[in-house]
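Intended use. Records like the one below are meant for learning the mapping from a protein sequence to its folded structure. Do not use them to infer anything beyond what is encoded.
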Amino acid sequence: MKLAEVLTKDNNRTQLLEEVEKIKKADPESLLAMDLDIKELFENEKFDDGAQLLEKRIRVHGEDASTASYRIQVLLHEKKYEELVKEAERMYQQYPDNAKLLDMMYIIKKDVYKDKKGAIKVYEKYLKNNYSYDVYTT
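Structure written out for the chain above:
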């Protein structure tokens, strides 16, 4: 992994891609390989294949903020909005300091539940314990 960091800093994309391919071939069930494959499947709009690989990733490596984010993408693609809201709320409860969830929770509170005060509290709660320039300027 350190080599990948060095190559990224050196802006050596060609060699970085070669190293990533070596990792994927050497250990296709590694966290990095699975995440890259899921992202590639989603980018190519192969959501069913991506969802299957996501479930395998969860079995092998467990759940984390990334798997929840992938699951939201699948639910959005499948237009399962009620499940999407539940998953977003579950994610927010598990990872309240994840800045990427703030906008989603704000919209859910404001537009789905029509709770403007609750929507504002999402940001207040985050900013009470965290600092993010991007969040302050949103």
